[in-house]
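Pasting as-is:
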Amino acid sequence: MESEQNSKNNEESLESLNQLKINLSEQTKINQVYVSIILRYKDYIEEKERISVAELPRFVIPKNTRIQQKVEEFKSNFENYVYEKDFYYASLIAYDFVKNKISEINLPIEFWFYPNEILEFLIGDIIDKNILLCSLLIALGNPSAKVFTVINNSKQDIFTYYEFNGRVYKMDIKDEVLSFESKEKMLQTVLINNETTAYEFNNHVYNDIN
């Protein structure tokens, strides 16, 4: 009887595995159809998604419910979160989350994600990730956080920075976190010249640097 039961269980497991393979195959086909549809209307989608850089502040949404929920998760690492004492360490938690938990992707079309959507899908390009980080830092209590973008020819460098306790912290998702005495000292590490396009923004301001 035990042998028969084991044989039955094996057959059921094999059947479940085969059904899973069928489901995955069907899902793959469906995904391919979605991609084909998206690419067919690529120009239309990108036309609707096209924005000016001056519109970027609307993507920084620190008061969004999902952003606030994530910030509460960060704050739970502290016995009693106090901005003046704990913000720097909380900012490192936010930085680590965005750097290591959000997969960086480049979609075949130009499409903007809001930070709450990035948290839902856990994906985004480098701009999306910095906008998310900026939103989280502001939600943690620091309104000075901004996304900084520098474009030299076809090369684009993006990072997020904030001011805290008399210092400026540069958070580079592709590199590391650095501390400076002032914003001027930080900008000395960034290549800005007459041919450079540079700007910064958060939920309240947009500034051209040149």
